[in-house]
Every structure is written in structure tokens, then in C-alpha cells.
Amino acid sequence: MPVVSWKQFSAEEPRIAADVRRRFGASRRHVLATLRRDGSPRLSAIEVHWRDDVLELWSMPGSHKALDLRRDPRMSVHAQPGEAGLGDPDVKLSGRAFEVTAPSERRAWIERAKPAGDDSHLFRVEITEVVTTGVDEAAGQLLIKLWRPARGVVVFRRH
């Protein structure tokens, strides 16, 4: 499955990217889905950050979610849904999260972000899918926008 960077996604779909950033910016903690060693899902709280045009996930040292991502980078993150109003879409983003291990990048991140510890984990996200779900009040319909690389946006409406 093709993947793109946040920069590529936001250049291709700026309006959806703005909705995604707004929803993730509305709350500090969100829900991350990773895969355990046995293939079963694990849900964890996560903070989502942007550095310039790069989407990042940060994690405490040795956390299960970080170990899951090291083993299998596939993930999904759901923006905190409890704080959205009817005008704000629900947002889910899927892709792969790769740990940043280059010493110079890690040092720069530690100086900038001041994580819980120097051995905290930094992951860079590459996107495979973005879904927003909102309400078109005028039409009385649920409005779902599904974006995938090389396919663009597909819109679904439900009564």
C-alpha cells in the first residue's frame, strides 16, 4: 500500500489536512492503535505533534506502544472524539510510524521538545489513509471523506 508524508498529503488535500490538524490540536491526548506481538490490537493514549511539515508521535521510554511500532510500524490514530462539536468532523489517520534513530535528529528533537527522557521514542508517520466523518446539517446526512494515496478523496453520504 502506498504511503505519503504529511507534507505530501497536506499539499494534495489542504482542506482535509486543516480539519485533521484542527481536530488533533483540540485535545492533548488521542487514541493510538498498534499491533501486539500476537497480532491482536492494542489501544493506547498518544500525543500527536507536527514539526514543520512532519507528523510525529512521541512515547515514553520502553512503552508497549513503542515496542509494538518497532516490531510492526502499522498504526492508526483517532483524534479525541469527545471534544468535537457537530461542526467538527471526527478524524482517523492510518499509516506506518518509523522510529527516528539518527543521533543528530534525536539530539535536535530532545533539545526542541524536551521529552520525558533522553531515551524517549520519536516516530515519524507516513500516511496510508485519512477518514473524516462529519454531519452535513443542511442535507441531514452523515458526510464521510476517505482519502488514500494515488486514489484521492472518495465521499460517502448516509442518511
UniProtKB/TrEMBL annotation:
GO cellular component terms, semicolon-separated: cytosol
Superkingdom of the organism of origin: Bacteria
Pfam families from the UniProt entry: PNPOx_N
SUPFAM superfamilies in the cross-refs: FMN-binding split barrel
One GO molecular-function entry: oxidoreductase activity, acting on the CH-CH group of donors
Positions of the Pyridoxamine 5'-phosphate oxidase N-terminal domain: 21-132
This protein's record includes keyword Oxidoreductase: yes
InterPro entries in UniProt: F420H2_bilvrd_red/Heme_oxyg, Pyridox_Oxase_N, Split_barrel_FMN-bd
Annotated keywords: Oxidoreductase
Protein's name in the database: Hypthetical protein
